[in-house]
Amino acid sequence: TRGSVALPYFWSFIEKYGNPRELAQAEVEDVRFFFEHLGLQNQRARRCIALARTWVERPPGIEKKWKKVGKRLVEVVDDSEGEGEREGWEIGHLPVGKYGVDSWRMFCRDSLRGLREVAPPQPDEGRDRDAELELPEWTRCLPQDKELRAYLRWRWLKLGWEWHPVTGERKKADERLLERARDGGVVFEGENGDWKMKMENEEEEENIRRTESFTGVENDVKID
User: What are the tens digits of pLDDT across the range 153-201?
Assistant: First the structure.
């Protein structure tokens, strides 16, 4: 569902159910109303209520992490915060998939852990400083959802980095790319896997020109 369609219903939903406890006490019929124009309304309503009830019964905290093994829920006792792949998450017990976990990591996890925002190094500083900093959680995410990838590409580009959504590698963005992004360029993935950029005044797809060695997904990349 496109954001422009979903956002009005989202804000109405938040106004109606301001916290998990209120949503946990809601009836499916009442919650379904907010999804009627978005599709899958019954399924989405039940999942929202189930999520809220689980949250109320067992709120996420920094002291425990969980992972799902088949249909079983397992507490992860020792899960490193290093560079390796982590198995458990503080919200691992909630009925959410990878999109939900990635979104929470990008926008919420640092707040739960009480970490202050630390900006990653600028390209001129190189990557040697990465190990010296406790970088934000979003810098370690490799989401599969195209909109989450677009957001991360935009965040890295604001800092002057060209970011690869599959490997997480980054390199200094060239000035031509940054200039086109500042001018309102939109980047998307073509049918053959090429990454292409279209400027706002180019309406036809035939006018889209390939941007060499660029990695990203479809979304506005204006740098404000």
Answer: 888 888 888 888 888 898 888 887 777 777 766 555 555 545 566 665 5
**Hey, which bits of 55-165 come out as E strands?**
65-69, 72-76, 161-163
User: How many other C-beta atoms lie within 10 A of the C-beta of residue 165?
Assistant: 22
Helix segments in the chain, DSSP class H:
3-16, 20-24, 28-32, 41-57, 98-107, 109-112, 146-158, 175-182
pLDDT at 39: 85
Q: How many whole angstroms separate alpha carbon 158 and alpha carbon 219? A: 14
d(Cα 201, Cα 206) in Å, to the nearest integer?
13
Selected residue with higher pLDDT from 197 and 83: 197
Q: How far is it, in rounded angstroms, from Cα 80 to Cα 183?
A: 41
**Separation CA 151–CA 188 (nearest Å):** 13
Q: pLDDT at residue 33 above 60?
A: yes
Q: What letter represents residue 53's amino acid?
A: R
DSSP code of 80? -
Structure-token match 């200094």, residue found: 172
Residue 134 contacts residue 82 (beta carbons within 8 Å): no
Look at the block and give the residue holding tokens 């020792």. 78
**Dist. CA 197–CA 113, nearest whole Å:** 37
Give the β-pairing of 195-198 and 209-210. Answer: antiparallel
CA 150 → CA 45, 157, 216, 221, distances in Å? 27, 10, 6, 8
Q: What ranges make up the beta strands (E) of the chain?
A: 65-69, 72-76, 161-163, 170-172, 186-189, 195-198, 209-210, 219-220
CA distance 98 to 176: 34
